[in-house]
From TrEMBL:
Principal localisation: nucleus
Function, in words: Component of ribonuclease P, a protein complex that generates mature tRNA molecules by cleaving their 5'-ends. Also a component of the MRP ribonuclease complex, which cleaves pre-rRNA sequences.
Annotated segments matching region Disordered: 162-183
Subunit-level organization: Component of nuclear RNase P and RNase MRP ribonucleoproteins. RNase P consists of a catalytic RNA moiety and 10 different protein chains; POP1, POP4, POP5, POP7, RPP14, RPP21, RPP25, RPP30, RPP38 and RPP40. Within the RNase P complex, POP1, POP7 and RPP25 form the 'finger' subcomplex, POP5, RPP14, RPP40 and homodimeric RPP30 form the 'palm' subcomplex, and RPP21, POP4 and RPP38 form the 'wrist' subcomplex. All subunits of the RNase P complex interact with the catalytic RNA. Several subunits of RNase P are also part of the RNase MRP complex.
Family membership: Belongs to the eukaryotic/archaeal RNase P protein component 2 family.
Keywords attached to this entry: Nucleus, rRNA processing, tRNA processing
Protein's recorded name: Ribonuclease P/MRP protein subunit POP5
A GO molecular-function annotation: ribonuclease P RNA binding
Subcellular location: Nucleus, Nucleolus
Assigned GO CC terms: nucleolar ribonuclease P complex; ribonuclease MRP complex
UniProt keyword Nucleus present: yes
GO biological process: rRNA processing; tRNA 5'-leader removal
InterPro entries recorded: Pop5/Rpp14/Rnp2-like, RNase_P/MRP_POP5, Rnp2-like_sf
Length: 183
């Protein structure tokens, strides 16, 4: 949250631009749908859907501060930013998106809302946990031993990377004493 602070009294007032974030997944049977994703196209599709579902008030209220903050075409993960007061307008319009149209092609799809958060960081944390759960589900459904080894290596690598980043954060904050304490 963005706030003005006074050292003696604490927060004075909230700034008017507080945002909420919707973490979504594009689900489609056609793999070309996700590969053709562009943030500009997806943003205009969401805006048009909000206008169709909620009219001019919904379009005007949600257009202030609306943006596609993150888009991964390979996984189909999308992070939408909107104002906190109107996140429900955006959220309630998402089920009405039934196709993605790009470069003259129309792909049937829908947006699955995974998480609603107040910061990008909370959405990132949720996404890490979500991806781990998905990898474990894939691991349980493996039939080939080679696939199983590849997924196990991926899970192990992601856990090691997280531990290393946690150690770096601790060592940056406390200097040599924190690094000695870790050992």
């Amino acid at each position: 949250e963005y706030r003005f602070w006074d050292r003696t009294k604490g927060p004075l007032r909230k700034l008017p631009w507080e945002f909420g974030y919707l973490l979504c997944e594009v689900v489609s049977d056609d793999p070309r749908c996700r590969l053709s994703l562009e943030d500009r196209v997806l943003g205009s599709l969401v805006r048009d859907t909000i206008a169709r579902v909620h009219g001019t008030f919904g379009a005007a209220a949600s257009s202030i501060g609306f943006a596609v903050r993150y888009l991964n075409a390979y996984t189909g993960i999308v992070l939408l930013r909107c104002r906190k007061e109107f996140y429900q307008l955006v959220w309630s319009a998402l089920p009405f998106i039934t196709y993605l149209e790009n470069k003259g092609h129309r792909y049937p799809c829908f947006l699955n809302t995974l998480h609603v958060g107040g910061t990008i960081r909370t959405c990132q944390k949720f996404l890490i946990q979500y991806n781990r759960r998905q990898l474990l589900i894939l691991l349980q459904h493996c039939t080939d031993e080679g696939e199983r080894e590849v997924i196990q290596k991926s899970v192990t690598r992601s856990c090691l990377l997280e531990e290393e980043s946690g150690e770096e954060e601790l060592s940056d904050g406390g200097g040599e004493e924190a690094a000695d304490a870790m050992e």
